[in-house]
Amino acid sequence: MEFNEKIKFAVVGCGHIGKRHAEMITRNDSCELVALIDVKEKSLLGIEKFNVPFYSSLEEFLVAGIEVDVVNIASPNGFHAEQALKCLDAKKHVVIEKPIALNMTDAQMIINKSLRVNKNVFAVMQNRFSPPSVWIKDLIESGKLGKIFMVQLNCYWNRDNRYYKEDSWHGKIDLDGGTLFTQFSHFIDIMYWLFGDIKNVQANLKDFNHQNLTDFEDSGFVTFDFINGGMGSLNYSTSIWNQNLESSMTIIGENGAIKIGGQYMNEVDYCHVKDYTMPELAPTNPGNDYGAYKGSAQNHNYVIENIVDVLKNDAAISTNVFEGLKVVEIISKIYEFRQ
């Protein structure tokens, strides 16, 4: 399909991230926001400025007859697969916030459906657009590091009762899915994007101080081997007191070592590589603001730009549905092999 006019978007879920999607759509000259959808009362959502039709369910929207090309799904995790399948049935392109699903069966169903109806599925992994991520991807693919020996991914954030509220979907196993799905899947995606799939997974998971807040673990030590060579570890926790500590990745290669860190893997802490001078990087966007919290980088503008480029110019999808499936598979492996 050729898009000579503006691409029409609807957004399902009008929380922090859904509003971020809507904002980036309205800022893009090639896009038009045609509807917002949420189960909550419109007056409670803070979406007045968008001035578009509002629907209380996806089903209500799909039968309303509004012309739409792309549906962005930013609802609670547990609804992603079901809503994506309904949109694909309606022959719409779909954008799915992380994760695309909470299990492999649902993720595979999305892939199968998208192939049958010939519609694109975009998995939102906006951290790929951060300057340190782009730089380290180029460096690794150049081969300057040589063989990769070790990779250590550390994700240490604070999530307490300011985040896990009684009326929230966060912390509920059927809607949230777990710490790795909701908090740290972006960083698992970066690791997969850089180094590929993993095997020989061993996971030691604990719940230190979230017993009364969530249905799942808050911390874990995970070890594995990369199928492409080298070994890795993931150490994570949401039990950090009061505020986020860091999200970092240390890479030990044959010809040097690199560490990217900061709270959101947004800074280069160390770079010492044979016969290599590091270039100056552009500033990284700040983390998304969730009131008392910040999350992954505010790069949704790049996500929307990529969607436009794909639909108008047949460009490559920045994170396709198969990569979204791999993130679900890696997280599922970790939970499967937990001690």
Tell me the layout of helices and strands.
Blueprint (H helix, E strand, L loop, with lengths): L6 E6 L3 H12 L3 E7 L16 E2 L2 H5 L7 E4 L6 H10 L3 E4 L7 H14 L3 E3 L7 H12 L5 E9 L22 H4 L2 H11 L2 E9 L12 E8 L4 E7 L8 E8 L2 E6 L5 E7 L13 E3 L4 E4 L2 H14 L7 H16 L3
Parallel strand pairs: 1-2, 1-4, 2-3, 4-5, 5-6, 7-10
Antiparallel strand pairs: 7-11, 8-9, 9-10, 11-12, 12-13, 14-15
Helix pairs in contact: 3-4, 4-9, 7-9
Fill in the keyword field for this structure.
339 residues, alpha/beta, Rossmann fold, Dihydrodipicolinate Reductase, domain 2, seven-stranded mixed beta sheet, six-stranded parallel beta sheet, 9 helices, 26% strand, globular
Provide an overview of this structure:
With 339 residues, the protein is an alpha/beta fold. The chain has two domains: 7-123, Rossmann fold (3-Layer(aba) Sandwich), CATH 3.40.50; 128-296, Dihydrodipicolinate Reductase, domain 2 (2-Layer Sandwich), CATH 3.30.360.10. The protein is 29% helix and 26% strand. The protein contains nine helices and 15 strands. The chain has helices spanning 16-27, 58-62, 80-89, 104-117, 131-142, 179-182, 185-195, 300-313, 321-336, and strands at residues 7-12, 31-37, 54-55, 70-73, 93-96, 121-123, 148-156, 198-206, 219-226, 231-237, 246-253, 256-261, 267-273, 287-289, 294-297. Strands 8-9-10-7-11-12-13 form a seven-stranded mixed beta sheet, with helices on one face. It has a six-stranded parallel beta sheet with strand order 3-2-1-4-5-6, sandwiched between helices. Strand 11 (246-253) and strand 12 form a beta hairpin. Helix 3 runs parallel beside helix 4 and helix 4 packs antiparallel against helix 9 (321-336). The protein is globular. The N and C termini lie far apart (49 Å). The relative contact order is 0.17. The mean pLDDT is 95.
